[in-house]
């Protein structure tokens, strides 16, 4: 569903997503990632990871369709490969979440910070760390 915005009236057909944010804390959002359906994935460094889509009732609005509990905040871009979302957390662990419900897999501590990624490149997700390692993840 496309959203039309009338700039003069400042009205939209779909109400925005409204996460719970703490007073006095600036929100730090990741770049969005498409999940291959009608939803988008976003991470916010204080409140977590969201799969956001349109809910029709009571009136059309963007809502969190899934939000996993996280031990540490997301500290990297999001990369989607097939039915898995990859990210790094603030403890330098590689995280994997299964779509669509964002069921978390077991975190994999990397022991180093990211200098690039994770990012999707073709049919792989690549991640470079500051200890000169390059990780290549595939659908298997």
Quick structural summary:
The chain is mainly beta and 140 residues long. It has strands spanning 5-6, 11-12, 33-34, 40-44, 48-55, 61-66, 79-81, 84-88, 93-98, 103-104, 108-109, 114-121, 124-129, 134-137.
Query: What is the N-to-C succession of helices and strands?
Result: EEEEEEEEEEEEEE
Q: Mind describing the biggest β-sheet?
A: 5 strands, antiparallel
The percentage of residues in β strands lies in: 35-45%
Q: Helix content range of the residues, please?
A: under 10%
Strand tally is: 14
**Rg calculated over all Cα atoms:** 16 Å
Estimated structural class: mainly beta
Uncertain stretches: none
Mean pLDDT: 88
Description:
The protein has 140 residues and is mainly beta. Helix content is 0%, strand content 44%. It contains no helices and 14 strands. The protein has strands at residues 5-6, 11-12, 33-34, 40-44, 48-55, 61-66, 79-81, 84-88, 93-98, 103-104, 108-109, 114-121, 124-129, 134-137. Strand 7 (79-81) and strand 8 (84-88) form a beta hairpin. The two termini are 32 Å apart.
Q: Which characteristics define this entry?
A:
single chain; mainly beta; five-stranded antiparallel beta sheet; 14 strands; globular
């Amino acid at each position: 569903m496309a959203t039309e915005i009338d700039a003069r009236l400042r009205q939209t057909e779909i109400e925005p997503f409204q996460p719970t944010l703490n007073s006095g804390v600036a929100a730090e959002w990741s770049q969005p990632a498409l999940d291959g359906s009608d939803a988008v994935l976003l991470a916010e460094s204080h409140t977590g990871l969201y799969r956001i889509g349109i809910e029709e009732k009571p009136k059309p609005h963007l809502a969190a369709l899934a939000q996993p509990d996280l031990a540490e905040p997301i500290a990297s871009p999001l990369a989607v490969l097939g039915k898995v979302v990859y990210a790094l957390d603030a403890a330098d662990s590689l995280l994997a979440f299964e779509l669509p419900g964002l069921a978390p897999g077991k975190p994999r501590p990397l022991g180093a910070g990211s200098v690039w990624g994770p990012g999707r490149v073709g049919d792989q997700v690549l991640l470079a760390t500051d200890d000169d390692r390059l990780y290549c993840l595939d659908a298997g």
